[in-house]
Amino acid sequence: MDRYSRIINKNCREIVLLKGYPCAWGKCTFCDYTEDNSRDLQEMIEVNSKVLSQVTGEFGVLEVINSGSCFEIPEKTLRLIRSIIKEKDINQLFLESHWIYRHKLQEMRDFMGIPIIFKIGVETFDNEFRQKVLNKQADFKTPQEVREYFDSPCIMVGIRGQSKEMIDDDIRILKEYFELGTINVYTNNTTDVRRDEELVKWFMEKYSYLEEDPSLEVLYLNTDFGVGD
Ligand code: SF4
Predict the structure, then answer these.
(1) Whose CA is nearest to atom 8 of ligand 1?
(2) How far is the CA of 121 from the centre of ligand 1 (A)?
(3) Which pLDDT tens digit goes with each residue over 182-228?
């Protein structure tokens, strides 16, 4: 499992994939990466410290992800991140959080003491698909509600049952309401949620121009940021 990487094509930054406690929700139908979650505090701290020791601060920007929300990262690791921020002159952090923690984001901003780009896996702004099919447990109704708390949504495209109109709408919403966003092209995993190859082909043709868009990062594989397995 690669847990450290450098992103150099858009929004240059270092990225680390840390271990955290089990995702507080843990029931999204498409998700099997909670397998990286742990309850062994010592193991998490050791793995995370080793990964974080690779951070150089070369871009002044660090993204920290775990298979869940940043609030599930052990406190000792969060303190280590905070000291690395100071030591390595890091001036911007990317973190990810589920909607359920939206009222705690400011607490994290205060704790880290530098600007944070908060990502959120909305998967789609189509409320019915997100809640009923993907079982995301993120009950906002409008993009504006998300924007009140978060900076950069992640959406998924190419899931069986999604429509072209839903994807068009999601990309329009990302561009209209947010400065940054991530588009994950769905890849099959151990869950029953399946990829729609036709839809992926259509997306890749219609939206190939997004490769040049500095505000949207398109991930064709889960490992495109250079971390994961
Ligand atoms: S919130 Fe994220 S980590 Fe948790 S189950 Fe859903 S997709 Fe997986």
Answers:
(1) 31
(2) 8
(3) 999 999 999 999 999 999 999 999 999 999 999 999 999 888 888 88
Q: Write the DSSP symbol of residue 188.
A: -
Ligand 1 atom nearest 25 alpha carbon: 4
Q: Exposed, middle or buried: residue 115 (CB in 10 Å: 0-12, 13-18, 19+)?
A: exposed
* CB-based pocket (< 6 A), ligand 1: 23, 25-28, 31, 34, 67-68, 98, 121
Beta bridge partners of 172: none
Q: Domain-by-domain residue ranges, the chain? A: 4-219
| Ligand 1 atom at minimal distance to the Cα of residue 27 | 5
Work out which ligand 1 atom sits closest to the CA atom of 31.
8
156 CA distance to ligand 1 centroid (A)?
Answer: 13
| Class of CATH domain 4-219 | alpha beta
Which structure tokens are listed for 223?
Answer: 């490992």
* Dihedral sign for Cα atoms in the order 127, 208, 193, 7: negative
Report phi then psi at 157, rounded to 5. -125, 150
Distance CA 151, CA 177 (A): 9
User: DSSP labels for 42-88?
Assistant: HHHHHHHHHHHTT---TTSEEEEEESS-GGGS-HHHHHHHHHHHHHT
From 18, 31, 97, 130, give the residue whose CB has the most ligand 1 atoms within 8 Å, as the site to mutate. 31
pLDDT digits (tens, 9 = 90+) for 120-140: 999 999 999 999 999 999 999
Q: Write out the two tokens for 227.
A: 């971390």
